[in-house]
Structures are given as structure tokens and as C-alpha cells.
Amino acid sequence: MDTKTMPAETTSVEPTSIQGQPADGLTADVSATLRTSAVRADTSPARRIPLAFGDANIPAPPVLIEALATHAHLNAYGPVEGSSTLRAAAAGYWARRGLATDPENVLAGPGSKALLYALVLSLGGPIAIPQPSWISYAAQLRMIGTKPVSIPISDHDGGIPDPGTLAAIATAARQMGTPLKAVIVTLPDNPTGTLARPETVEALCAVAREHEFTIVSDEIYRDLVHDPAQTFLSPSQLAPERTVVTTGLSKNLALGGWRIGIARFPSSELGDELKSNVLGIGSEIWSCGSTPVQEAAAHALSEPPEITEYLNSARELHAKVAQAAVAVFRSAGALTPLPAGAFYLYPDFEPLQADLWSARQIGTGTQLVAHLRQAHGIEVLPARDFGEHHDPLRLRVATSQLYGTTSDQRAEALNSSDPANLPWISDQLHCLEEALRSLCE
Predict the structure, then answer these.
(1) How far apart are CA 120 and CA 216, in angstroms?
(2) Average pLDDT, stretch 290-308?
(3) Confidence (pTM)
């Protein structure tokens, strides 16, 4: 991805671009990613290849299904902050990753998305986010009456605003009397699938310290870094006093429907204040998380051998299928960074702009998405949905949707040493290759 093509005005700071005005009422559309999960192929070819929804698309770990059933009788309200069992397990999980954690600094909720919303509600604005970034960051900020400060990423460092640009914007914001309250980052990233380099994380933390704003580090894909030997540097290791970490089990353990999220607050005055605010917000919105789910999550976070084995298999599956899909997009001429984690690709068709217009009158990502859907039944999302301006010819592709349509297919994919060559996966990759090849014909 060539971030140099991103429009310069997205990095400028005008007074109106820092702080929005709360509306009398709220109008909110359904998230583009969730909307695609319900799309039917009524106007598409009979064959449909859904590559839009970011679901892990593999079976839940059997050991956790058993744990959930064992605790299904726990039907009473629990503590707003989450069960002591879960918070202790989460503290151990982070400690094994080099982040010593007191269970008192852990808070659980019904999904990390709910915790992130409570965090931005507590922080207020303005808040900086990467461009591109996960759809819900900008949407949640708008819901609290704050216009997101969207800052382009540096090349191949998805998930973190370019630190130099962030510093310049933070300086300008302070001079205008509207200093940044926080920055939200994603490690590894959705939508690009890349993992920011340690030096970029270090630069981010230096800017946050200098300008005294909070870092919210969304690390829900941390356990899905494709190469376990690759260095993963969390901002909480460098700026522990000002970094909140969020995670959950929807991606790494394919438990999106169970709705469980966990936040780690810094052991500092800031951390105490934020945790207290989020606790108050949670008490009025979700009361408490599902107790049976929390008990199952505690077992998962204790990382017994069954979970470690499951994660290893999931990581390999995501990596191998994503790499096969990268080859397909590259063969069509799209610039496609090799993902470092999760199950997302971010192919860039800008090099084919002239040919796409000449052959199909396709000049934007939205038009490219519409053509792929209508002509080939392929569902993807345009970069515009992830905060990029002027609708560039970039797409977000969720390769996990290739794993199968039945439980048996998904289980076989999870346990296969060569999943990209399973018949139903290779067949879809072949159809995708043909569709992409035909774009400029």
C-alpha cells in the first residue's frame, strides 16, 4: 500500500476538525462489516464468495464449549467489573506476555467493542485514530459528538497513525486549546493485516508522553500474529502509565457470538480514574457480563494445552490461506502487503486505475466492490468504509470466509496442514483469480 497517495488535507487541523458538536438526537447506520454478514445474493450470481465479514469462521474450542455448559447454571448477576476468576486469569495472561498486571486493574464486559465505547465516552474528545482503521472507532467517536482526528498510517505500519504527523497535529491541537485526549491503535491491524514495527510503537509512545494523552491499544488480534517469533511490542510496555489495553476472545478463539471483552488499565492515577468511569458506565449500560461466558473465558485465558494447540492451528490456518490469497491479488496486479497477523488483506488497485476505467468504467473502490458483487458474487468492502477519503481503489478482504460453509469443512480447514488446497478453498481462490483477471479485459 502506498500511503503517499492519501490526500494531504486529511492531516491538516482545522478548528472544526478537532471537536464536533453533540446532536439533539442520534442517527446511526448499521456497521458496514456487520451488515455484510446478513447480505443475501439476491442480485448476484448463484455462487457467492463472501469476503467481507471479519469473523474467524472456525469451530469454537470444544474445551470451552464444555466449560460454558458446566457453568450454565450460574444465572445471577455478577460484579460489574467481572468475576474475580476471570480478572485473575486475565492478569496471568498478560503477565506471561511481559505485562505484570494486578487483577484490580482488569475490567471485563460484553465484548471489547462495548469497553472501547465506554472508554471513548469517558475520555471525551478529540481522539486520534489511524487512517485507515476499524470502522467502529470513528463511528463511536461520532456517537459521543466528537469528530475523529483521522491520521494516515506510515508505509506498512497499519494500525498506528504516522508518529510525525501525529506530533504535528497534537501540537496544533494544543495551540488551538483543544489538546488531544487519546489515540487509538490496533496491533495487529484491521483492515491492513500488518503489524506496526517496534520503532513505530516507540515513536508513538514518545509523542503520547510529550503531549500527555492516553493510548488505547486494541490488541484483540495479538494471539494471531502469524509468526510467533515476530516481535510484538505493546505501547503498555513503553508507556505503562498512560496505556489501556483491550482484548477479547472473538478473533483468536472464534467466540464472537459469546461477547466477552477484557480491558487492562494502567496502574496510575489516570488508570484509576478511567477504570472508575468505565465501571460506572458499565453499571448503567450492561450491568455485568454473562457469568457462564466469563467462567469459560477464565479457563481460556489460563491457557491450558488444548487452547495453546487450538491457537497454533488457527494461526497457521489464517497465515496459509491469507498468503494464498495474497498471491491471487498480486497476480492480478494489485499491490498487496503480506499480512503479519489475523485474516485480512488490503489490496490496492490504484496501479490498475487506467485499465479499470478503460475496460469497466471503474474509478473508485465503491464501484469496484459493486462490480465484484454483481458480476461475480464476491463480497468485499471498500477502503472508504475504513476512513479513507476520496474512495481509493483499495479493498478490505476477510480471507477467513474461505474456510467453508459447514462445521465439517471449517473443522477440516483448522486441522489441515495444507488448507489452501482443500477443494472448497482452492475452488473459491480459483474463482477469485478468474474474477480479478477479468477486471481489465
Answers:
(1) 9
(2) 98
(3) 0.91
The beta-strand segments (E) located in 5-131 are: 49-50, 106-109, 127-131
Return d(Cα 10, Cα 68) in angstroms, integer: 46
In the block, which residue shows the cell 498478560?
94
Question: How far is it, in rounded angstroms, from Cα 12 to Cα 145?
Answer: 20
Going across the sheet that includes 106-109, the strands are: 106-109, 261-264, 243-248, 214-218, 182-186, 127-131, 149-152
Sign of CA pseudo-dihedral 244, 198, 154, 29? negative
Contact between 180 and 215 under an 8 Å Cβ cutoff? The reply is no
Residue 92 corresponds to which cell in the numbers above? 496471568
Closest CA to 116 of 201, 199, 190: 190
Query: What's the CA dihedral at 280, 284, 286, 288 to 10 degrees?
Result: 60
Q: Return the residue matching grid coordinates 471525551.
A: 124
In whole angstroms, what is the distance from residue 14 CA to residue 169 CA?
A: 10
Instruction: List, for residues 24-40, the tens digit of each pLDDT value.
Output: 555 566 666 555 544 44
Distances (CA, A) of 314 to 233, 307, 351, 407, 414: 22, 10, 33, 15, 6
Nine-digit cell string for 93: 495472561
pLDDT of 2 above 80: no
What are the cell numbers at 9?
A: 488535507
Q: In what order do the strands lie in the sheet with 395-398?
A: 344-345, 395-398, 381-382
Q: What is the spatial distance between Cα 31 and Cα 53, in angstroms, rounded to a whole number? A: 11
d(CA 235, CA 311): 23
Q: Quick check: 383 and 365 in contact, CB under 8 A?
A: yes
Q: What is the pLDDT of residue 156?
A: 81
Contacts of the segment 91-94: beta carbons below 8 A, 24+ positions apart: 92/301, 92/302, 93/301, 93/302, 93/303, 94/245, 94/264
Q: Is residue 422 predicted with pLDDT exceeding 90?
A: yes
User: Is residue 395 a contact partner of residue 329, using CB atoms and an 8 Å limit?
Assistant: no
